[in-house]
Design a protein that fits this description.
Oligomer: homodimer
Largest interface: A-B, 52 and 52 residues
Number of strands of chain A: 3
Order of helices and strands of chain A: EHHEEHHHH
Radius of gyration of chain A: 22 Å
Distance between the termini of chain A: 57 Å
DNA sequence: TCTTTACCTCAAGTTAACTTGAACTCGTAT
DNA sequence: ATACGAGTTCAAGTTAACTTGAGGTAAAGA
């Protein structure tokens, strides 16, 4: 393990293509850490760039920053393998559905039916992706029944 | 085409499992339409449920409501096939990346390496999904250079 | 030395997609 | 007749994930 390069926030920003404001925000949220300061200025180890790539991947997968934080540095010391496995399963579901949507779009782009809602092929796709479509919408704070 | 059943908002809510507030919101945004009123009460044709399923699919695919609106009822009369095809391509890209993430998670859930950032397999996956990871973040209103 | 330039903090604003609350109107069951 | 449940409007609040702005500091180059 060679001592990694140390960079200031501007360089990290350039390498990751993330605005500095985002990097500060991520640090505040605990997603990344700076290794120290030079005066006021944050100093980052180069490996933060990799971590940021991971974070971005997580975001593509549409995990929230909190979920990502949970996966990267869980409560204890090491990663929660069970959680990861569950997330992978969730993702797999999502991929199935996305594939259905993609096929639906693909088809709709060439289909002659007036309305896609009238097209039997499209309807079939709808059913296909339909499992779980109308489920678990995000909730706000739940009321406690007094 | 038999005359479809006509329902009030509560029934639509039950069938789609969407809160009535969401249905009103969608109507306001032009994503769905009521076929009329009975006094104050909105009346919906049963086919709205199918449309809502489409909308939910679109959301799973992480299109914004505006994009979905664009795909369902575009500017003119009929659907913009080119747009759909483009969206399908975008989706396909996203599916690739999600698959990479899923594999990454799957692997991480069994990998022995101390830190996943140190695991070569994981790093490889990172690179794989990496194309486009650090790209096109959402922007707010852009400043005009005066 | 001076000035640019990059950095800092902290509070407040932004956006999408909804939800919540208050105050009101109906149709229907009792 | 009346009370209840389900609907309505409209304004304001919520959440995540950032961004923007004001006002200040400090390292590096001319």
């Amino acid at each position: 393990m060679k001592p990694h390069e140390i960079m200031d926030i501007g360089k990290v920003s350039k390498m990751s293509n993330l605005p500095v404001s985002t990097l500060r925000y991520y640090e505040e949220k605990g997603l990344i850490q700076s290794v120290g300061r030079n005066g006021l200025r944050r100093l980052f180890d180069a490996n933060v760039v990799e971590r940021l790539a991971l974070i971005s991947l997580g975001q593509i997968a549409r995990f929230s920053l909190d979920e990502i934080a949970g996966m990267l540095s869980p409560s204890g010391s090491n990663i929660d393998r069970k959680l990861l496995s569950e997330k992978a399963d969730e993702l797999d579901q999502k991929i199935q559905q996305l594939s259905a949507v993609r096929d639906g779009l693909r088809h709709a782009s060439v289909c002659k039916a007036r309305s896609h809602l009238e097209c039997p092929k499209f309807k079939r796709l709808l059913k296909l992706g339909n499992k779980g479509v109308f489920r678990k919408r995000k909730q706000f704070i739940e009321k406690q029944p007094k």
